[in-house]
Amino acid sequence: MLQVKQVSVAFNQHKIIQNISFSLPYGHKLAILGPNGSGKTTLLRAIDHLIDYQGSIKLGGKEVREMKRAEIAGQIGLLKQMSTSYFPYTVKELVMQGRYRRLKGQFFGTVDRTDKEFVEKCLVATGFQDMQDRRIDSLSGGQLQRAFLAKTLAQDPKIILLDEPTNHLDIYYQLELLDYLNDWMADGEHAVIGVFHDINLALSFSKEMLFLKAGQIVNQGQFNQIVSGQFLEHVFNTDVLGYLRRNEKLWQTIK
Ligand SMILES: Nc1ncnc2c1ncn2[C@@H]1O[C@H](COP(=O)(O)OP(=O)(O)OP(=O)(O)O)[C@@H](O)[C@H]1O
């Protein structure tokens, strides 16, 4: 179980997120939504302890800031927003880095057969069995995103944090990713937090939602209990429901 209690993060004394509290048991998914700059990425980075936080973030009862990096890597996998420049690793080398992360204080040359087999499994699961020697700077945006997912899976974490995981994926791979995560969680021993901009996709991912605005939680809970047209307009400063309904009408006009 992930327990986030009264968490705040400040940069240069400027508070970015404030008093965030929620918990996520294994076997559950949580979609985080909110406008640009509302603190979604900052919250994920705090959970992964890439930045300092005030308050408490516990995994399996243990405070994240007291855990060593390799221990955190065995618990949390963060799939970041994509950037545009990368070292020219091959797909397999990139995915293997996910495995290195959880090997305590060790680096290249220390993986064993089990690690290699695990990496192979992740490459197959993400459709890279025939492309593992391709350099990642030759991949398309969507392929690259899948390669980074494979790297995150290779960490074999308890919780995956997805920061806008589908922004480079076509519809096929968007749905594939959501299906894959459902399978991955089916044993009830893993959890996923996903940050989404597309509210429809967020809904396909999870009915359990948390909305952030200006660094604070506006509301959290089940979609049909907390979301209304007025609520979405308050969070995003625009008529989201009107937009969705206009599109829905258009979809009804085609076969
Ligand atoms: N290292 C940093 N130093 C100073 N300010 C930062 C830093 N990282 C983020 N911020 C600021 O914190 C705020 C929240 O940023 P964050 O990336 O968490 O928002 P977000 O909700 O993920 O936004 P988006 O939807 O645009 O990805 C922004 O105003 C951003 O400029």
CATH architecture label name: 3-Layer(aba) Sandwich
For this structure, the CATH topology is: Rossmann fold
Low-confidence stretches: none
Mean pLDDT: 90
Main sheet strand line-up: 6-7-8-3-9-10
What's the CATH H-level superfamily name?
Answer: P-loop containing nucleotide triphosphate hydrolases
Major sheet: 6 strands, mixed
Bound molecules: adenosine-5'-triphosphate
Q: Report the strand count.
A: 10
Helix fraction by DSSP (H/I, runs of at least 4): 25-40%
Rg over CA atoms, rounded to whole Å, is 19 Å
Protein name: Iron ABC transporter ATP-binding protein
InterPro entries: AAA+_ATPase (IPR003593), ABC_transporter-like_ATP-bd (IPR003439), ABC_transporter-like_CS (IPR017871), P-loop_NTPase (IPR027417)
Pfam family, one: ABC_tran
GO molecular function: ATP binding; ATP hydrolysis activity
How would you explain this protein's 3D organization?
- This protein is of the alpha/beta class.
- It has a single domain (2-84, 157-252), classed as 3-Layer(aba) Sandwich (Rossmann fold), CATH 3.40.50.300.
- Helices cover 39% and strands 24% of the residues.
- It contains 10 helices and 10 strands.
- Strands 6-7-8-3-9-10 form a 6-stranded mixed β-sheet, sandwiched between helices. Strands 2-1-4-5 form a 4-stranded antiparallel β-sheet, covered by helices on one side.
- A hairpin with a 2-residue loop joins strand 1 and strand 2 (14-24).
- The radius of gyration is 19 Å and the shape is globular.
- Bound molecules: adenosine-5'-triphosphate.
- Adenosine-5'-triphosphate (ATP) is lined by residues 11, 16, 34, 36-42.
- Adenosine-5'-triphosphate (ATP) binds next to helix 1.
